[in-house]
Amino acid sequence: MRFARLGNVGTEIPVVIDGDRSLDLRSITADIDGAFLSGDGVERARAAVAAGELPEVADAAALRTGAPIARPSAVYCVGMNYAAHAAESGSEPPKQIVMFMKAPNTIVGPYDDVAIPRGSEKTDWEVELGIVIGRRASYLDSPAEARAHIAGFVMANDLSERDWQIAVSGGQWSKGKSAPGFCPTGPWLATDDELNADDVRLRSFVNGEARQDSRTADLIFDIDTIVWTLSQYLVLEPGDLVLTGTPEGVALSGRFPYLSAGDVVELDIEGLGAQRQQYISA
């Protein structure tokens, strides 16, 4: 199934996407959140679609597309998880998972404008597969248990201010990761049966020019290993977002200019749709 949220910021309508229709889920849930994902919400939505019980949202195409999940309790990120990206960053592929965090309030819609932060000279793009947690995960015994704790997958742009991340970070990446709007997410959340998330193509473009082009099969630490490993150090709650890393082709490589006002970034991942953001001055 594919779930989305439509409407103005703070008043988004939860919907299930059925072909070219957006069906209103408010009779089942107030939002696409941890409670919906960890309970019987997905099954109830599936049954309601099959029974024809959900009304179509009028003028859905005219509504803003919000992030497909309500604000999670945490956004965890895995760094340097593609060997070629580690190399372009000047690092060896990590032997242990590199984890950092983004502020949950960075999550915005996939087509929302993004402001270049004040004083930023090195705002960078990063297309990433995102894991949405569906069941509380703590001290999982093995990676084989991970998939049962995943509600589905989303696309995200893990935007970064590289000077803040590296030069003035104090050793912690999150300063360069948590500016307003630095996590465009969506357009939809797809359940595991909608795609083979272990091997999908992901790409990014800046002003129509290709930047990143890879597959999630090239992840150093795969989806199940990421969830299992994180569960040994922290508790993953339903609705939490885990970003899995970005492939090569970012501005940090030195091959491309950083973003500036007026630029347009487009992203796509097989099975998870496409994003487009216009970058503006703060």
TrEMBL record:
Coiled coil: none annotated. Keywords: Hydrolase, Metal-binding. One of its GO terms (biological process) is small molecule metabolic process. GO terms for molecular function: hydrolase activity; metal ion binding. Residues 75-278 form the Fumarylacetoacetase-like C-terminal domain. Belongs to the FAH family. PANTHER family: FUMARYLACETOACETATE HYDROLASE DOMAIN-CONTAINING PROTEIN 2A, FUMARYLACETOACETATE HYDROLASE DOMAIN-CONTAINING PROTEIN 2A-RELATED. This is FAA hydrolase family protein.
